[in-house]
Every structure is written in C-alpha cells, then in structure tokens.
C-alpha cells in the first residue's frame, strides 16, 4: 500500500482512527485472534474501499467469537465513495477466563478486507489494545494512553 493512498483516504469521523491505520490493508484473511484478559471489550473495525468501483462488488460478513456482528457489509455502499474511511464499532463483547477474541471475515462477493482492528476494554483509563494495522502481520500494539506502544499477541489465521 502506498503512502499516497493513505493520504487520499478520508478518515474524518466522530471517532478518530488510530494513527496510520488507513495506510495498510489486509484482504482475503479468514480471521484474526487476540489473547485478552477476561472482561468487556469494544472492537472497532476500520475500512476503506480502494479497489472495487461499484457497490455490491465486495460484500462480506463479520463474526466475533462466532456471533454474526455485521451481515453483508458493502464498504463502498455504506461509505458512499472510494477512499472514504468507514469505522464500525461493536460494544459489549464479553471475554471469559479463556481470554480469546476472534474476528472472522466471511466473503460473499470478492474477498473481505480490513484496514485495521482496535480492541479496547470498556473501562475508563484502562489499557487499549490496538489490533493489527492490516498490512503488517505482526504489527499490533498494546498501549496505555500516552505511553509508547508495545507489541501484542494478535494473530492472523490462515
């Protein structure tokens, strides 16, 4: 993904994206898995369509821990334009003692794609787990607000 594409993506939203998240893209992946402490989490998925030209050309669903959270997502149709950021939040995800979170993508038309995944505990002042910037296999960060990011244990499953 080129830096020019990153600059071209319109990421203006009420919820600002993590720095640099629209500069990468991952497509065709079945799922991402995160190891987390037990608790309640919010997942924020970052999307922007850069390749297909017409609504309906790329459609896919998203499941979190097996539960359907988005069905027949069409990034282009929802965002209204190519290169325009689309952020989806799923709140209230309970993680039990096993500590696993899996975000799965099920393609219907073309391959599913994602720009980034953020996983954040639903607590004030808690640590935020910023999932993968989509283009980098092992580039996730565990950061406490205001501190330098550290690598996390998110895994892309193939």
Query: How would you sum up the global shape?
Result: elongated
Structural class per helix/strand content?
mainly beta
Beta-strand residue fraction: 35-45%
Which CATH class applies here? Answer: Mainly Beta
Task: Describe what you observe in this structure.
- With 158 residues, the protein is mainly beta.
- The protein has a single domain (9-155), classed as Jelly Rolls (Sandwich), CATH 2.60.120.
- Helix content is 7%, strand content 44%.
- The protein is built from two helices and twelve strands.
- The protein has helices spanning 3-8, 75-79, and strands at residues 26-27, 31-35, 39-47, 59-64, 67-73, 86-95, 100-109, 113-114, 116-121, 128-133, 141-143, 155-157.
- Strands 5-4-7-2-12 form a five-stranded antiparallel β-sheet, with no helix packed on it. The protein has a five-stranded antiparallel β-sheet with strand order 6-3-9-10-11.
- A hairpin with a 2-residue loop joins strand 4 and strand 5 (67-73).
- The radius of gyration is 15 Å and the shape is elongated.
- It starts with a helix and ends with a strand.
- Mean pLDDT is 75; it is low at 1-8 and 124-155.
């Amino acid at each position: 993904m080129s830096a020019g594409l990153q600059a071209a993506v319109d990421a203006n939203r009420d919820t600002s994206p993590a720095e640099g998240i629209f500069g990468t893209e991952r497509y065709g992946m079945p799922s991402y898995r995160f190891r987390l402490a037990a608790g309640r989490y919010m997942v924020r998925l970052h999307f922007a369509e850069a390749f297909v030209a017409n609504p309906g050309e790329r459609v896919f669903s998203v499941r979190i821990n097996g539960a359907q959270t988005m069905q027949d997502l069409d990034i282009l149709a929802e965002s209204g334009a190519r290169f325009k950021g689309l952020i989806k939040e799923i709140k209230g995800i309970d993680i039990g003692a096993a500590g696993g979170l899996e975000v799965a993508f099920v393609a219907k038309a073309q391959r599913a794609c994602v720009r980034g995944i953020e996983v954040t505990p639903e607590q004030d002042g808690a640590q935020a787990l910023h999932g993968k910037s989509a283009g980098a296999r092992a580039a996730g960060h565990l950061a406490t607000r205001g501190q330098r990011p550290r690598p996390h244990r998110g895994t892309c499953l193939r």
